[in-house]
Design a protein that fits this description.
seven-stranded mixed β-sheet, mainly beta, Cathepsin D, subunit A, domain 1, 6 helices, 2 domains, 23 strands
Length: about 325
């Protein structure tokens, strides 16, 4: 907020009024003072674009010359870095550090300031976690219906109170404490650093810890669960490989199973499709970034049936249908 300088100091204004009174004239109205500039909003609601079970919003960037550029970002509660596709980064005039390889991806840290907004709300970004996808003009695999210009990840979401209203196609980002939560409350432990939220579901009489993963199009579970389920329930629908919406996930899917019923909080959900991931991906690798062990990720094919509210500060999840 810039410093406010009134056009006439208070002491000088008193002197002027005294002189006017001595001359017998009625003083006119005191000169109006310019309003102080408003600070940033404490909340913003923008359209939520749901494509292939994944939620997207438009993020607006301010270029060095003051002009603006909007880009379509995947909002991924299970994502790590604030990622930007290389063509967008070049258009924004961002300067980059040395590129490093991470798996089959090549990433470079942004070394120049980034001004990004959702609606009128300026985003609080960690400069060290703003990365450009070198050689990539899209975030998602070709099988996904939306390309994605970048990723809005979990550690950024964790700074706010967030509403994914899949039903009304609205996305709300708010300062913690300003929203009155709506829906069925549930615990949602949030890992420090990653910002990854954890929730629990019930399947076949067992309670399972899972990542609440808005960025994935299809729910995933460890092979260590799916293979025993197949043996115990040969009547459950099963397919080799990625079938239907599971194909939009990307990555190695060797089998897809349709669970006849899962329970999430007080909600019962029939016929939930689940893709597999190799034993250990969730149990060891992903669990190391969570508050407690997990065996899978609850994703878009389930989340799109709800208004999902994430109160990160109080580590609570609210569901509404």
């Amino acid at each position: 907020m810039r410093e406010y300088h009134p056009p006439v100091s208070h002491a000088l204004a008193v002197t002027v009024l005294a002189l006017i009174s001595a001359c017998g004239a009625k003083p006119g109205p005191e000169p109006s003072r310019p309003a102080e500039p408003a600070g940033p909003p404490d909340r913003v609601t923008v359209p939520l674009h749901v494509e292939g079970n994944r939620p997207f919003i438009d993020v607006t960037f301010r270029k060095p010359d003051g002009s603006k550029r909007s880009a379509r970002f995947l909002v991924d509660s299970g994502g790590g870095g604030f990622l930007i596709a290389e063509p967008i980064a070049r258009e924004l005039g961002l300067t980059l550090g040395e590129a490093v390889s991470e798996g089959d991806a090549k990433l470079a840290q942004v070394t120049s300031p980034v001004q990004a907004f959702v609606g009128d709300l300026p985003l609080e970004l960690d400069p060290k976690r703003i990365l450009v996808m070198i050689g990539k003009d899209r975030l998602l695999p070709p099988a996904a219906p939306e390309r994605g210009d970048g990723m809005f990840p979990g550690h950024v979401l964790a700074r706010y109170h967030v509403v994914f209203d899949y039903l009304e196609k609205k996305f709300t980002l708010a300062t913690p404490g300003v929203l009155r939560p709506e829906g069925e409350p549930m615990p949602m432990p949030v890992a420090e650093g990653s910002g990854f939220p954890r929730t629990e579901i019930q399947v076949d009489g067992a309670t399972l810890g899972v990542l609440l993963d808005t960025g994935a199009s299809f729910t995933m579970m460890s092979d260590a669960l799916i293979t025993p389920w197949r043996a115990a329930h040969p009547d459950w629908e099963w397919h080799a490989g990625a079938v239907g919406e599971a194909a939009t996930l990307g990555g190695p899917t060797t089998q897809t199973i349709i669970l006849p019923r899962i329970v999430w909080g007080t909600f019962e959900l029939p016929q939930v499709g689940v893709a597999d991931r190799k034993d250990g991906v969730f149990e060891r690798w992903m669990s190391s970034m969570m508050t407690a062990p997990i065996v899978g990720a609850l994703a878009g094919n389930v989340l799109e049936q709800f208004r999902v509210e994430l109160d990160y500060k109080n580590q609570k999840l609210y569901l509404k249908r």
